[in-house]
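Reply to dn_fold:

You asked what the input looked like. This is it:
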Amino acid sequence: MNTVYSIGELESFLIAILVLFIGHSVNRHLAAFRKYNIPEPIVGGLIVAGFITVLHFNNISIEFSLSMQNTLMLMFFSTVGLAASYKLLLKGGSKVFLFLGIASLYIIIQNAVGVSLATALGLEPIMGLIAGSITLSGGHGTGAAWAQTFQENYGINTLEFAMAAATFGLVMGGIIGGPVAQRLINKNNLVSSYGIGGNHHKDHPDLVTYDQLEEDRVTAKKILEVLFVLLLCVAGAKWFGKFVSVMDIGWLKMPEFVYALFIGVVITNATEMTRGFKINSECVDILGTVSLALFLSMALMNLKLWEIFDLAIPLLIILLTQGIVLAFFAYFVTFRLMGSNYDAAVMAGGHCGFGMGATPTAVMNMGALVSRTGPSPQAFMVVPIVGAFFIDIVNAIILQGYLSVIG
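and this is what came back:
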């Protein structure tokens, strides 16, 4: 008999914070984790998820109440938008399209690897797409959507495989990103143009670092002002999402966090041009870092690791191979094509995040890096915009091409 324990909202929130403390404590005592910048939410989240998995196999289920998880994600992407002033966009706009081209090329490779291995291992080629860009570049939501399509069009039930593959990718993306980027930084003696350590906000008032160790000088009033703007972005994203759904405007249907990001872009550039109100970048930095850390700790502690155990061995082989291929691609291709500099190394770590998991995983990888090696505002502009918006469109087009061939 299975016993279910439901954890209340407040207690679940406390555990989410505890996950971060656990990750910090483990990283502090294990030199290898510090050296390769394994993100704290990954470390703490996997420990808690592992404990819950042990309970699961002893017929004890834990259910968390995490209603704030989606709001925290929307808050984080709002800060990405608020940090993207038109001056920064003009300065690094070309990098967005270059990175999009690289990420698109990798999706083609990712699906080729998946389909080839699936065929070689005696699986349906479609299973290779599921263990390819559908779940790895697309995430859980894309995996669930395509599983429904495959059920309707091909009569194949792939939902469990899709969820397991997306879960595996989320973990793998968080693990490989730090070591890949740190290796590039160390081997090429790369440094941030803003320097390591010191008070970056003092020298560069408009800089958003997403560095949890950065010293910030803020006031309660400034925090409240920026919190109001962030919640305005969150509410606006939800309202706009409902409007698009009710009006059935197909070409505008996107994940809510994309709306939040672009509302943030509009607000920050409107305030810059009117000069009537200036959004405090240090408050954006603090609230963005906190909301990202809490969102990821909630996502990781709620992982059902036993779904990975249920994977068929062939599918597990495909997923492990995908992780290795992405690590090499980011190291040898992404880094070089993006400029072979410090920003390129940070973006290579971010590519590992959303190429195997999701855009928040990419930002988590980059955040762990910049906390030790210095700011990279260009990476924090390029990777989230490509990962949150453009890549889903490209992924859908490439998948349709593959299905026309193997379907």
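The longest strand covers residues 3-6.
Hope that clears it up.
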